[in-house]
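anyone seen this seq b4? input:
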Amino acid sequence: MSDQQIATTTTTSNAVAATTGHLPGVNENEQPGTMEGAPPLAAALEAKFGARLPDGDPIPLSKASEEPDRFPIDALGSMLGRATKGIADIVQASTAMTGTSVLASATLAVQAHADVKMPYGMTRPVSGLFVSAGVTGDRKSAVDDLATRAIQHCQDALWAQFEIEQERYEAALESAAKIGVAPPRAPRTPQFLMDDPNAEGIYRLLSEGRPSIGLFSDEGGRFLGGYAMSEDQRLKTATTLSLLWDGKPLSRVRGGERASFLPGRRFCANVMLQPYLLETVLGDKLLKEQGLLSRTLITAPASLMGYRLYRDPDPASEKAVDDYTNHLLRILAVPPRMRASSPHALDCRPLPLSPVAKARWIVFHDDVERRLTEDGELRPISGLAAKLPEHAVRIAGVLALVDDVGVAEIDAAHMEAGIELARHYGREARRLFSEVKVDPQVSLARKVGGWLADRVQANRSERLARSVAEAPGGDAVGECEDRLVTLEDIYQFGPKTARKAATARKMMDILERHRWVVRVPGTHEVRGKRESQLYYVVASGDR
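predicted toks r here
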């Protein structure tokens, strides 16, 4: 079954989970009943904890969602397209998530070599900021591992070389001190991948390391929930990322330090996260008005969970991934051109559009512009839509450079492909932004619901780790306990905006009224502790 077929029955966004009433990531259990015909979990819940499942199915928390947009794999070209299909086949993951990771990895590989020259004369980096959403269990890590394999291999090799150079440097430093000559220059750090940086960390790495770096994280919650995106740092981080996307130099002036200036740096990102975190990002007024969201391309494909029955991967898929990995390694081995006046700053050559490519781009630009009128279909995402023509040229530049890192111009075929991919991300943005425009209380309840799904998965993993011999699903009481969460869990560890007891209680009241959870009376021993204010997270197969 293809991604698109599955998209008609299931999606990853919490907004869509709300329409079905099923919490994403919570497995169904349709086993023979043991108490008057009731399924084992319902029986265990009543017998052990004195709670009963609600009558009727969970009630949707929002209107029905549109289906995710079909990812245009063929627009990626032969090399990246075959790699996308290969990774999707090996991992059994969505082609939208896989294609976005492949495109982001290719962007990091080529962004040091050229900047696109826009039809109106300005040069812009080919760099991109990408976000993919998928529930726990959608195999984000496996996709990221294969998509970034060339980058990881390159970084490992650079670190091995760095250790040799560092030993030589330390010996030379000691020798210079003995004979009283100027100390040697220290080798630059080879690190060019990050997964949880803040603005200062990005600046330092670009100052002391390579001039082209990337933020790649298959656990975006670490970045979004970390220091970089905290209340005090969020604007600073967003501004830094926006400046880098724009290709502008970074500068820093601090009391007691020498002023520093970093021209010729390039940065791209690919952050993979859970749908409830994506909803938090899309609803963040600061990120939207500051402009970071308009610079970010987002996809949230349908989950394939429940359809991934085991099969051996096609041998052609493994070859496609190997070919892609080796191709990116060859690109990464090409030294970028550096500025004569600043040996650590890139001197990216301009990459213009061919006359035919420019004509195609103008048609796309004007089509987008016409749809930005007050009642136009792109008006709700006007920030991103206004930048879609530039996104299209950047993507076209990446595709052209992947095919030939020394290419002199972007041809019509690559421009058409960039336009098709930009349209995909535009349609996804329009769908996703429309889904977060709901009552703030309902929106927060959905976020809590998404967090509960992840909590259930974590509880289950911890239980099975404690009892390796236990077969999944073999212990109804254990499975039932996996679904139990306390109010304290939510206001201590849940979504940040729900981390007050009163707010957490209000969210659980909403979820209980909508039959997403059931309140458990009394005090019970759960996972070795006496707990009260317990809730059971409902799944569709419990009845």
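Residues 3-62+438-537 form one domain. Residues 149-179 form the longest helix (31 residues). kinda curious what u guys think
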